[in-house]
Amino acid sequence: MSAPARRRLAPDPAEAAREALDRAALERAWSNPAGFVGWLTSANHKSVAIRMIVTAFGFFALGSALAAVMRLQLARPENHLVGPDLYNQIFTMHGSTMMFLFAVPVMEAFGIYLVPLMIGTRNVAFPRMNNFGYWIYLAGGLMVWTAFVLNIGPDAGWFAYVPLSGPAYSPGKRVDLWAQLITFTEIAALVAAVEIVVTTLKMRCPGMSLNRMPLFVWAMLVTAFMVIFAMPAIMVASTMLAMDRMVDTHFFNPAEGGDALLWQHLFWFFGHPEVYIIFIPATGFVSTLVSTFSRRRIFGYPAMVLALIATGFLGFSLWVHHMFATGLPLLGESFFTAASMMIAIPSGIQVFCWLATLRSGRVVLRAPLLFALGFIALFVLGGLTGIMLAALPLDLQVHDTYFVVAHFHYVLIGGALFPLLGAVLFWLPKLTGRMPSERLGRWSFAVTFIGFNLTFFPMHLLGLGGMPRRVYTYGPGVGLTTGNVVASAGAAVLALGLLLFFANVAWTLRRGAPAGDDPWGAETLEWATTSPPPAYNFAYLPTVDGSAPLWSTRERPVVTGLRTDVREVLITDGIDATPDHRHRLDGASIWPFLTAVAATIGIVTALFTPWGVTIGALLGLITLTGWFWPRGAPEHAIAEEQP
Amino acid sequence: MSATSPVARARALDVSALPTIVYGPRAPLWWGVLGLVAIEGTALAMVGVAYLYLRQNFVAWPPEGTPLPRLGAATAELIVLLASVLPMAAVDRFARAERHRLVVLGLTIGIVFGLASMALRALQFAGALGCRWDSHAYGSVVWTLLGMHAAHVITSTIENALLLAVLLIGPVERKDFVDAHINAFYWYVIVGLWVPTYVLVYLAPRWL
Amino acid sequence: MTRVVVLVIAVISAACSGRMPVLDPAGPQAGRIATYWWVSFWLSVVILTAVLAFLLHAVTRRRVLVTPPASPIEDVRTERRLTLGVSAAVGATALTLVVLLVTSIATGRALHTFGGTQPLTVEVTGHQWWWEVEYWDPVPSQRVRTANEIHIPVGRPVLVKTRSLDVIHSFWVPGLHGKKDNIPGHPSSLVLQADRVGTFGGRCAEFCGVQHAHMQLLVIADPPDAFEAWLQAQRRPAAIPTDPAAHRGFDVFMQGPCALCHTVLGTPAGGRTGPDLTHLGSRTTLAAGTLPNTPGHLAGWIIDPQSEKPGAQMPANSFSADDLSALLAFLGGLQ
Lengths: 643, 208, 335
Known about the structure:
The complex is a heterotrimer.
Chain A: H1 3-7, H2 13-30, H3 35-41, H4 45-73, H5 84-118, H6 127-149, H7 174-202, H8 215-246, H9 260-294, H10 301-314, H11 330-342, H12 344-360, H13 367-390, H14 392-398, H15 402-432, E1 434-435, H16 438-464, H17 481-511, E2 513-514, E3 559-560, E4 568-572, E5 579-584, H18 591-605, H19 611-628
Antiparallel strand pairs in A: 1-2, 4-5
Helix pairs in contact in A: 4-5, 4-6, 4-17, 5-6, 5-7, 5-8, 5-9, 6-7, 6-18, 7-8, 8-9, 8-10, 9-12, 9-13, 9-15, 10-12, 13-15, 13-16, 15-16, 15-17, 16-17, 18-19
Chain B: E1 13-14, H1 28-55, H2 72-96, H3 100-128, H4 137-169, H5 174-207
Helix pairs in contact in B: 1-4, 1-5, 2-3, 2-5, 3-4, 4-5
Chain C: H1 2-17, H2 28-60, H3 76-112, E1 120-127, E2 130-135, E3 144-147, E4 149-153, E5 158-164, E6 169-172, E7 180-182, E8 188-192, E9 198-204, E10 216-222, H4 224-235, H5 244-255, H6 258-261, E11 285-286, E12 291-292, H7 295-303, H8 305-308, H9 321-332
Helix pairs in contact in C: 2-3, 5-9
C-alpha cells in the first residue's frame, strides 16, 4: 500500500531486462560468502549488524538473568540465596553487561543496519572495519563472562570506584578483567561511531542535504560524535587503573599524590554522556514510530534536530552531578544543578513535538507504536525523578539509594529499551521479510509495561526509606520488606513480558506472514527496497528532494553510472549531498577477524604481563599489513584520468 | 519514490563521469583518520587534564626529590618533528601529483626523521624525566603523556615504512598515493600533538 | 473537588512519611530537604498527569481500522497552532525548572550556612566495615573514641567530619541530613542537628566491598543533660574488674588475640585495627548494626564472625566454654 506501488506504470520490457542484468551483476559483486566463513569475513553492513543485534540481545538475556537472581536474593530480608561475594560479582556483571555489552552495541548495530539504507547507499564507509568491531566486541564479552563463570568476575561495580578497585583492596584479576572489558568494548564502540559519522557525512544519496536527513540518522550522527568524545575518558581511566594495579603507577593512590576523585571525574565525564549515547538513538526510534503511525512527518523537524544536538553538547556538562556527595565548592554545586536541570529543555522539546505529532495526526495503534507510547509515559516519569536528583540538596538524601536505581531504570528501560522493542517489531519485517504477530506484540507490551512498573516504582519508596544501592541484603523490620517483595514479584511479570516479546520474534521467523517492501506505509528509504534488502541495498541509488521520500508524490530520478562489476558507491558532499566522486569499497576478507584475534591475544595477555601490549602490537602489525596490502585493482594503475 | 521502479530511469542522474580518486576532505578515508585523530587527541587531552588535576595534590611540582625535566633530548625532538613536516608535506604534494619517485624519496626522509624522533624519545625515558612511572603520581602522568605520544610516532613511522614497501615492491596503484597523502595528514597531527605535550611535560613544571 | 485533592495530598504525605526517614525529618537540614522534596514531588505529579492526560487524549480521539494514507504536506494553520502549543509547553518547562533551580540553590545555601552556636565536633572515619567515631575536644585527654554509635545533644549543631583511610564510604543518617562521602585523601564534613529525642538509623551509602550491606550506625539524640552525662561516662576509662569471673575474662582478653586489634582504655589493650571496646557494654548493637548487643550474639560474634558477616576483618576465635563466659562477663562490664 505504499505510494510508489500505486504509481508504478507498466514496465518497459527493455528497461526491465536491463535492470535484471544490473541486479545480477550487483548480486555477484556484493554478495558475501555464506555460513560460518561469511561470519568471519563479511563486509556487508546488514549481516554484521544483525549479528551484533543478536549478540547484544544474547547479553541482554544474560544480564536479565543476573537481575532475576538479584531480585530473588532481595525478595526477603537477610536472605541466603547468594552470599555477598557472589552478589557483588552479580551486580557488577549486570551493570557492565547491560551498559557495555548490550545497550550501546545494540543501538550502534541498529545504526549500522539502518543508516546506509535510510540515506540511500549500499554499505558503510569502512565495511571491513565493521566486522573487526563485531569480533572485538564479542571477544570482550566472552572474556568477562568466562571470568564470571570461573568465579573471578569483576566485583567492584560497573563504575569501579577507587580505592576499592585499586591494587590494595581488590587483589587478583577481577578488576583487571573489568578494565580489559572496557578496552574491548570501547574499541568496538569507537569503531562503529567512526563508521556512522563518515557514512552519514559522505554517503548520503543526492539531494539528501542535512536538513532532509531522517531524524533517526540525525540521532545516530549525534550519538556517534558523543561516543568519539566521551569514550576516550574511560579508556584513559581504565588504562590508568590497570597501570596502578599492574605496574605500580600512582594515579589514584593518595599516598603518592594520586587522587580517588580523579577516577570519578574521568569515569563520569564518560559515564554521563554514556547514558545519552544510549538514549538518543532511542529518540530516533520514537520519532520514526510516531511519524509512521501518526501518518504525518514529525512536527517541528528543525527543533527536533536542534534538541538532539543540544542534548549531545549539554550531556558533556553534567557529569559532576554524580559526585554531589563528595564535598564540592558551592559554585560548582549550583552550576551542575543548573546544567542538569536545563537538559530537560531539549528533551522536553522532543516530547512536546511527539505529542503534537500524535495530536494532529491520524493515529494507528499498532504494537510498535504502543512501545513508543509506553516510552513517553515512562521517560517523562524518569525524567522528572532526574530533575529531582539534579537538585543537590535532595540528591544528598537519595544519591546511592534505590531511588536512583528506580530513576535510571525508568530512563534506561522506559527511555531506551521500550523504544528498542518497538523498533525491533517495526523493522523485523525489513530484516526478515516477515510480519510479527500483532496480538503477541500487544500482549508483550502490556505485560512488560505492567511488570516494569511493579518492579521499579516501589524502588523510589525504598530509597526514601533508606535502602542504599549495592547491598546483598537488608534488615527486617525497617520498612524495606514490602517494597522489595513487590519489586521481586514485578520482576517475574516483567520477565514474562519480555519472554512473550521474544516468543513473538521467534514466531515471526518461522510463521510470520510475508511482509512485502513497505508493510507499514513508512516514509524513509529503507522501505523502498525489498524485505530483506538485497546485498547491494538498491538496484539504483535513489535521489531525494524532501525529508519523507516515500510519502512524496513527485517522480525522482535514480543514480546511474556506478559500476556493477565491483563494489562501487557514490560519495557526496557533506552538507548538500551533491555527487562528488565514485568510491571503491572493499569486499569480504579474513583480515579484520584475524586483527581482532591479534588484539584479543594482546589485551588478554596484558592481564598477566605488560608485555601483552607489545605482543598484541606485533601480531596486529602482521594482520593489519595483510588487511591493507593492496590487492591489485587494474583500473587503479597509474596514469589514468586525472582527478 | 521507489528506487526499484524502472519508470524513474527515464530521468536518471548519471555519475559515470565522476572521478574515482580524490584527496583531502573529499575522501572518506580522510574523515576516518580525522575520527581517529579526534579520539586520540581527546584521550591525550584527558591525560593532560589529569596532569593539571594532580598538580593540586603536591606542594612542589615536580615533587620534592625529583628534578625539573631536562630539556635537551625533548627540545631536539621538537626540532626534529617540526622539521619533519617538510618531507611529509612534500610527500603530500607529490602524492596528489602522483609523482612516484618523489613520494618514495619524501617518505624515506620522513621515516628517518621518525626514527630520529623515536631515538630521542627513548633518551627522554632513559633519564630526562628524573623519575620513574612508579615514583609518584607526577611520574605516572608524565610517563603516560610521553608514552601515549610515542605510540603515535611509532605507529605512524611503521605505517610510512609499510607504504614505502608497497611503493617499492609494486605494482603501484593510484590508491597508494591517496594513502601517502593520508599518512602525511596523520603525521602533521602527531607533530601538532607533540607541541602541547612538550609544553606540559617540560615547560609547565617550570611555571606551575 | 478541591477538598478531595487536598485530602489526597494529605493522605499521600502521611502515608509516605511513615517508614521513610527522608520524609520524616528530625532536624533542620533534613527538614529543608524534605520541603524541597514536596515542592518537586507535587510539581512532578502535576506535570506527569498533564502529559499522560494529553497523551491518552491524543491517541484515543479517532479510532482507525485501516491505515490511512500519509500526509506529506502539513496544514499551515495546524502547524501554527501546534507551534504555539509546543512553545507554551517549552516556556512552562523552562519556568518550572527556574523555580526548582532557585529553590534548590536556596536550600543548598541554607544547608551550607547552618551554624550558630559552637558545634559539637565528631570525627567519623569509615573503615571496612565499621564506623570509628571520635568526639573532638581541645584537651586531648577529654576526647572520646567509640564505634558505630553516636550520641548527640538535642538542639545543638553537630559538625561531623568525614574521612577514610581505606576505601570510599558514605556517612548517611537520613532522618537528620543528606549524606557525605568519606574519601581517602579528601576529608569533608557536614553539620547536622536533631530537634527531637530519638534514635536515628544511619548506614554506609557508598559501595565499599563485601560487607557494605552491614555497615550501619546509630545516632542517638539525648536531652542535653543526658548527653553530658553520657559523654562524661565515656571519658572514664575502664576499671580492671575485681569480680573473679570478669577478672578471668580480662585475663582471657589480654592473653588472647583481642588486644592486638582492640583498645580498652584503662587496660594495656591498645590495638587500633578494630573498634574501641572501652564502653562496649553501653552500645545497642554489635558489628556496625549487624547484631543486637546481647551476650548470646556477642558470643556468636566472637567465636565466628564470618558466619554473621562473611568477609569481615575479624578472625574466628576459639575459646573454651568457661573462658568464653568469663570473657562475656568482662565485656558486659565495659559500660
